[in-house]
Amino acid sequence: MTQLNPKKTALTLGVFFAGVHVLWSALVAFGVAQAVLDFIFWLHMIRAVYLVDTFNLIASLSLILMTFVVGGVVGFVFAKIWNWLHKV
Prior knowledge:
Elements: H1 6-29, H2 33-43, H3 57-85
């Protein structure tokens, strides 16, 4: 079974997690995030009780950085567990 490179897996998931939140920040900045959130809640048959606030650059950058770090940690731990479970 193929071994995963923990650093590359960490970087990949970090970039993916951060990228999703770059998209979310763009939706907030363009004023369409509430409609997207309402639609997602509707799809899940959930009554929307959350309101999207106005765009805040510092909050957005903090969100993107934090999700990059969390994604990196998750990717690194995942690769280590994967490699441990698939030792040859």
